[in-house]
Amino acid sequence: MKKRILLLVIILVASAVIVLYWMNRRVDQSSKMMALVNGFVIDGSGKDPISNGTVLIQGSKITAVGRSVDVQIPAEANKIDLEGKTVLPGWIDSHVHNAFDPVLRRRFLEIGITSVCDLGSPLERMEEFKTDSFEGKSVARGLKAGPIITAPGGLPDAVLKEDLNYEIGSPNQARQAVPFFLKQGADVLKIYLENKAGEKSYPMLNENTLKALVDEAHSKNLLVRAHVTKLSLLPLALEANVDVIEHLPKPDLREAVLREKISKSKQPEKDLYDAMVIPEYESAFAFMIEKKTVLVPTLRAGLGRFHKSAEANKWQKILAQGVIDLIGRYFRQGGTIALGTDFNPNNDHPLDMLYQEMNLLREAGLSPMDIILAGTKNAAYVCGHANDLGKIEPGKLADIVILEENPLENPSALRKLHAVIKNGKIAWK
Ligand SMILES: [Zn+2]
Q1: Ramachandran region of residue 318, left (φ > 0), alpha (ψ -120 to 50) or beta?
Q2: Is 420 helix (H, G, I), strand (E, B) or coil?
Q3: For residue 368, how far is its CA from the centre of ligand 1 (angstroms)?
Q4: How many other CB atoms are found less than 10 A from the CB of residue 180?
Q5: SS3 at position 56
Q6: CB neighbours of residue 20 within 10 Å
Q7: Range list of β-strands (E), 244-307
Q8: How far is CA 387 from the centre of its chain?
Q9: Which of 10, 137, 164, 381 could cross-link 386 (Cys pair, CB 3.0–4.6 Å)?
């Protein structure tokens, strides 16, 4: 009998402990409610901004956004008055390399980049992208493609030798690669369509293997992003239905070819410009737009870096102007642009490349709002995260940057950071 009573007491105490634990958890979660009030909210959807808006966050997610008069704030929420500062979705750099290191990703977060998408790192580094903090501090979310899918013996590793290749030689291997990458945690797939480095030729994915890969990836809701720098290879990518083109595909710009073109010319500046801005772009851009293919131009990492640069020579500046004009033309024609920089810590690139990229997009004719969409909604899409990132709307992860001033009035305010929120927590201020 005594034993029974003892057992009953144990059960009762255990139940009480469990109930108290759950009650505590509930209290704990509701205390993590945050209300950003009196903000100028640009939600990343392209809709008109909300002046005097409120964003309600619970745990890691956004639960409400709207005019302050329309959003009910629960009494227990931690209320933060933004005094008219601008609220945006966190910046996403959709094209970087070797960003597995959380120390590097902390530095990204400190300039407002709440997610990066790595488009080429060795397979054995993929695990490291899961690390979400460094010394207790939040770091930019590490989305990734993992290694780059290419043909056996193909680029980029045929030249770079950085253990970046994942080689497939048949449609069958292509289909097997997709579940393998998913198992490794890939957010998107990256392929390399390039068959020359200098004058040397290398194997490249053929049409059948490429199509098998893209079809299989799409059946598993994975996007395929293609490195394409030659205009002549763009149709191959588009006909296989790849989702995103990385870099601006260009005409043949080998130095020998250009020299030949301008050496005997009476108007060498114009001839060089015309060698870059060729009529074929008209139909190439139309094909991209018809296929709804997004472009990540990575201007700053390419010829764009010479634009209005004190260090560039006359010829480099002409080519850079051509690139800027082409991006403007693509955009006005109706093309979609996502922000990505090709940042690579091994290549001596500056951390604030994202802001330099924004400046170049502005030179190409994008408005501050267009640039914001390129760096939020569109970047989230090309990273395979349109569902949970890139916009301030209920259900999305609460990744938010707060700017001191309104960037729609003053574009230089795009980099005037006040605070960064990631996963619903203030990550930098
Ligand atoms: Zn790249």
Answers
A1: alpha
A2: strand
A3: 25
A4: 13
A5: strand
A6: 10
A7: 244-246, 294-296
A8: 14
A9: 381
Q: What's the CA-to-centroid distance between 45 and ligand 1, angstroms?
A: 27
For residue 190, the CA-to-ligand 1 centroid distance in Å is: 9
Residue 124, both tokens: 């054995």
- In the reported structure, the alpha carbon of residue 18 is separated from the centroid of ligand 1 by a whole-number distance in angstroms of 51
Residue 52 alpha carbon to ligand 1 centre in Å = 39
SS3 196: strand
Q: How far is the CA of 295 from the centre of ligand 1 (A)?
A: 13
pLDDT by 10s per residue, the chain, length 429:
567 777 776 666 667 665 555 555 544 544 589 999 999 999 999 999 999 999 999 999 999 999 999 999 999 999 999 999 999 999 999 999 999 999 999 999 999 999 999 999 999 999 999 999 999 999 999 999 999 999 999 999 999 999 999 999 999 999 999 999 999 999 999 999 999 998 899 999 999 999 999 999 999 999 999 999 999 999 999 999 999 999 999 998 888 888 888 888 899 999 999 999 999 999 999 999 999 999 999 999 999 999 999 999 999 999 999 999 999 999 999 999 999 999 999 988 899 999 999 999 999 999 999 999 999 999 999 999 999 999 999 999 999 999 999 999 998 999 999 999 999 999 999
Strands 417-422 and 133-134, bridge-based pairing: unpaired
> Where in the chain are the domains?
1-26, 91-392
pTM: 0.92
- Nearest CA among 121, 102, 247 for reference residue 186: 121
145 CA distance to ligand 1 middle (Å): 11
Distance 383 CA to ligand 1 centre (A): 13
Among 132, 140, 137, CA closest to 113: 140
- What is the whole-number distance in angstroms between the Cα of residue 144 and the centre of ligand 1? 12
